Amino acid sequence: MTITSPGPASSVSLSTVRSIQAAITRAGLGEGLSAHSLRHGFASMLIVGLRYDAVSVAGQLGHAKASTTMNVYAHQFDEASHADQLREGLGERFGHLLASSS
To answer: DSSP assignment, residue 50?
Structure first.
């Protein structure tokens, strides 16, 4: 399994990345899963699942600036926005079908 070191702006040490990668291997989670993919998944959960704003996500990821978070995860913030718009539109159009009849 290939381990790549974090980028220059990262505060995560190479030993931390190696420890996470070793845990992934011991757990038998397979190829393709890495410390980076876990981090990206965590960020996606915060943005799309929990609707965190860029400042909050930046804090969780250790980014010094929210603009870094926006640059890296802009597509996730767009996805969250579109999901909200879709949910609202469907609720307005079809919400009456889900209303309680009692």
So the answer is: S
Residue type, 98: L
Residues 6+ apart with CB under 8 A from 31: 1
Taking only the tens place, the pLDDT of each residue in 39-75 is: 899 999 999 889 999 999 999 999 999 999 999 999 9
* Distance spanning both ends of the chain, measured CA to CA: 57
Which of 94, 52, 89, 90 has its CA nearest to residue 69?
A: 52
Q: Tell me 5's DSSP state.
A: P
Residue written as tokens 């079908």? Answer: 97
Cα–Cα distance for residue pair 61/73, rounded to 1 Å: 11
**Do residues 43 and 68 touch, judged by C-beta distance below 8 A?**
no
Could you list the residue range(s) of the whole structural domain that residue 69 is in?
Answer: 14-97
Cβ count within 10 A of residue 54: 19
Domains: count for the chain:
1
